[in-house]
Amino acid sequence: MSVDSNERQRHLPAGRKAQLAAYVAETGQVTVGELAERFGVSIDTVRRDLDQLAAEGSLVRTYGGAVSLSTVSRTDRAVDQRLTVQEQEKEKIAALAAALVQDGSTIMINGGTTILALARNLGQHRDLTVATNNLLVPGALPPTSVRDIYVFGGAVRALTLATVGPVSFRGNTGAELDISCDLALIGVGAVSADAGYTTSNLAEAAMMQEMISRAARVAILADSSKFGRRLFAQVSELGAADYLITDAAPPPDLRDALASNGVELLTPGQS
């Protein structure tokens, strides 16, 4: 009885890895469990294969899976375009936000280009633990500033290259681990006196809410072009934050609402 050559090849390490890489390239994003079932191997084997393929530059490893290089390339172009919008304002906000981060602390940060600017501004910090759903952050963080980087798993939004899913990690036994942070730094799409902090994506809003709930302190990052607007999904009321970091003073109604909710306003040039 002959054995199909393709079936035999997929169970050999080199052949399996080649087919796995091709499948990721075709699919765009995959999970470890999906690959283990498709290729008939263990979870640990898939993890080793993905780690090796990532080291060879064949794909991008994520927590719980991988994404294709073409997905990263498309998203990089989209992110590059957004980085040029309010670029100077984002850099000012990032510098102010970085000043809130203490050496040796644990921070949670979400997706977005303002947060990406923050990551690049952490070069003077040391011994940080960073948890994020932003797949561009690990490459943007100065290596000398971090002790550990953790990326939350979930589906990958191709537009932003950020994951959407639970703000959690599981141990080797599969049990969910209890996690918290000293400071959550959250970029939002809009800020208004009546709606609070909002964003355009429902799943991202839920993820931001959970990051906020796990933080001892919360800083919201938003440039002044986002004032007085309301987007689809509310992240939280104004009072859920300790700080609003922005590039210019907000309009009077928003400024008064922030003050009445105990939110400290941080802008460049404050004495």
From TrEMBL:
Residues 13-68 form the HTH deoR-type domain. Keywords: DNA-binding, Repressor, Transcription, Transcription regulation. Gene3D superfamilies: 3.40.50.1360, Winged helix-like DNA-binding domain superfamily/Winged helix DNA-binding domain. SUPFAM superfamilies: NagB/RpiA/CoA transferase-like, Winged helix' DNA-binding domain. It comes from the Bacteria. Repressor of the lactose catabolism operon. Galactose-6-phosphate is the inducer. This is Lactose phosphotransferase system repressor. It comes from Paractinoplanes durhamensis. The lineage of its organism: Bacteria, Bacillati, Actinomycetota, Actinomycetes, Micromonosporales.
